[in-house]
Write a structure and sequence with these properties.
Largest sheet of chain A: none
Number of helices of chain A: 10
Oligomer: homodimer
CATH topology of the largest domain in chain A: Tetracycline Repressor, domain 2
Strand content of chain A: under 5%
Radius of gyration of chain A: 21 Å
Distance between the termini of chain A: 74 Å
CATH class of the largest domain in chain A: Mainly Alpha
Number of strands of chain A: 0
CATH architecture of the largest domain in chain A: Orthogonal Bundle
Shape of chain A: elongated
Order of helices and strands of chain A: HHHHHHHHHH
Number of domains of chain A: 2
CATH superfamily of the largest domain in chain A: Tetracycline Repressor, domain 2
Chain lengths: 188, 188
DNA sequence: ACCTGAACACCGTTCAAGT
DNA sequence: ACCTGAACACCGTTCAAGT
């Protein structure tokens, strides 16, 4: 009995959760019901503790949201690192937005006051794009070309996820039109 | 006395505020301190009543935010209607984002759960772009061209406002590079 | 050392009571 | 008819007290 209930000897209670589990729960909650529903209570309930216990592992709610943003960017970076053409990158980028719309919005268009990922995570998510942009536009214009591509892709998918394409017409056609246009525009 | 304090005869109290004034206060608050600070209490204080009184004029906080979004889009539409070239539209669009960053973010990249403007307001903000896009790309590709332009411009300014261009290099140069690239790309 | 209930300062919103 | 204080159900966060 004493070996199980170790607190009977005044020893520390065994951990009932972990930072990893908390971030995972937060990411699920974000995708399932949006940033507003990502409350400390909801996260705590999901991992099986009370809200105040979370403060042993994260500084506050903003810090938790930042961890979610950084985990999201790491995943995106990994996926974009595979791409070798503009079309590859574009499709991978868009697919990610469709799979994780809330996380995508969190990292690409955080509202004012929403915490953002550290610089290194944002840089990491752009290296794949920068590589391909450099090949097409030349090293002198790599950064500008990468920014043109990223702005277009992020803008397009954000608008799409926000239902901003309400005028009819095929969104897929507009996407392919854009991919072709951007690729041509940034190719030296 | 009775003519001044009309309530002494059981008559309605004179209005102490108006919907217009409330929306104006909300827009100021949004721009001054962000969406999170746009609370019913703060708006009420700004117009000189108590929070519960606001519910006589707006259904709830979301409805008020939607009114702010719609007022913002009306103003943007008016400004874009003047433009005759891609560069005109692009610069006007970007200038608007710089002048009203919080309102710009609210309408271009509302977070999940954030109320959005009615369709007619979003359509109105695209007519100027659609007109110029049609002239350049031909009517058959007007919609796709407009979407390519809008996605790029919205994405670029959003990234800029979010400080996503941290890699160095001139942001203005990247903007001009993009304007030229997009204009060429959508010109038939 | 981790976890908890209680407490505090905030929210948005409702509603009976004032004028 | 409009406005208000009081109340309710929520938040995030702190902290003393438990184990």
């Amino acid at each position: 009995m004493a070996t199980v209930n170790s607190y009977t000897r005044g020893m520390p209670t065994p951990d009932r959760t972990s930072l990893d589990e908390i971030v995972r729960a937060a990411r699920e909650l974000l995708e399932d019901s949006g940033l507003a529903s990502l409350t400390m209570s909801a996260v705590a309930q999901r991992v099986g503790v009370r809200a105040p216990s979370l403060y042993k592992r994260v500084r506050d709610r903003d810090a938790l949201i930042q961890l979610v943003a950084e985990a999201t960017l790491s995943e995106l970076a990994e996926r974009l690192d595979q791409g070798t053409t503009v079309a590859d990158l574009a499709d991978e980028f868009r697919a990610f937005g469709h799979e994780r719309p809330a996380a995508f919005a969190l990292v690409m268009t955080p509202g004012a006051g929403t915490p953002v990922a550290g610089d290194q995570f944002r840089v990491a998510a752009t290296t794949g794009i920068l590589r391909v942009a450099g090949e097409l536009a030349g090293q002198d214009h790599a950064l500008q070309a990468a920014r043109t591509f990223t702005a277009w892709a992020a803008g397009f998918v954000s608008m799409e996820l926000n239902g901003a394409f309400g005028l009819g017409g095929s969104v897929d056609d507009a996407w392919n039109f854009g991919v072709t246009a951007i690729a041509a525009a940034i190719t030296r």
